[in-house]
């Protein structure tokens, strides 16, 4: 694809992943800073290309894509060649990247963090569920502790000095965990801090929070 790139979604931690990928790849893009739970995702225009009425959504010319991990991987696979980013070169490398990505998206984001987010931090919308929240937090920490030694073995990023789509998914999700009051082991905090110190991440964060952008 080589049409105009438009990213819909501001402030959200999941939109931040997409800003980060775009910044790492040095892509210019239009930004539509709509927020979740503001009513802005409920318009007829937005619902036409994202019936889930969530953010983020990416438009690349005529191509529309939702789901932050799918978008991050799409951007790396479409625009990463020849750039200073890591792209898996064979099925084994792809499998290792997938293993980290699915771990972050399933075990952490979907199974535990979104549950904590909804029922601890947005109870007025989703209802209180203290037993489920405590169980999800315990589960999340158990999963993070299981991979903490492997993350401790990572000197810089997962695949060395160059950033991968899997790094964006893993580092951002570990950060969600800390924001939702799951205590990160030192190795995970150090890995997240290295990834978050990258100029592309800092640029992404500024853009994600720029509600006057267009
Ligand atoms: N699996 C989706 C989740 C998207 C999502 O839940 N986005 C949140 C903002 S971080 C949202 O739009 N929430 C509004 C709602 O649930 O109605 C992704 O990773 O893109």
CATH hierarchy class name of the largest domain: Mainly Alpha
Number of domains: 2
The poorly predicted ranges are none
End-to-end CA span: 21 Å
In angstroms, what is the radius of gyration? 17 Å
What is the mean pLDDT? 96
Care to give the gist of this entry?
The protein has 214 residues and is of the alpha+beta class. The protein has helices at residues 13-24, 44-49, 68-79, 91-121, 123-126, 130-152, 165-179, 186-196, 199-208, and strands spanning 5-8, 30-32, 57-60, 63-66. The model has no long low-confidence stretch (mean pLDDT 96).
What are the SSEs and their pairings?
Elements: E1 5-8, H1 13-24, E2 30-32, H2 44-49, E3 57-60, E4 63-66, H3 68-79, H4 91-121, H5 123-126, H6 130-152, H7 165-179, H8 186-196, H9 199-208
Parallel strand pairs: 1-2
Antiparallel strand pairs: 1-3, 3-4
Helix pairs in contact: 1-3, 1-7, 1-9, 3-7, 4-6, 4-7, 6-8, 7-8
């Amino acid at each position: 694809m080589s049409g105009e790139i438009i990213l819909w979604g501001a402030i959200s931690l999941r939109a931040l992943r997409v800003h980060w990928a775009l910044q790492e790849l040095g892509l210019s893009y239009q930004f539509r800073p709509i927020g979740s739970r503001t009513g802005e995702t409920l318009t007829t225009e937005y619902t036409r290309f994202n019936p889930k009425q969530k953010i983020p959504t990416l438009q690349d010319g005529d191509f529309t894509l939702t789901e932050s991990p799918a978008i991050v991987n799409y951007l790396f696979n479409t625009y990463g060649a020849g750039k200073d980013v890591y792209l898996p070169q064979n099925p084994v490398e792809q499998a290792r990247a997938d293993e980290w990505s699915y771990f972050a998206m399933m075990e952490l984001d979907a199974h535990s963090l979104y549950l904590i987010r909804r029922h601890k931090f947005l109870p007025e919308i989703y209802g209180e569920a203290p037993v489920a929240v405590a169980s999800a937090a315990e589960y999340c920490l158990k999963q993070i502790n299981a991979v903490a030694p492997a993350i401790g073995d990572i000197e810089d990023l997962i695949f060395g000095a160059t950033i991968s789509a899997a790094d964006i998914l893993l580092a951002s999700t570990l950060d969600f965990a800390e924001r939702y009051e799951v205590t990160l082991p030192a190795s995970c905090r150090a890995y997240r801090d290295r990834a978050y110190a990258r100029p592309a991440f800092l640029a992404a964060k500024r853009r994600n929070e720029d509600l006057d952008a267009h």
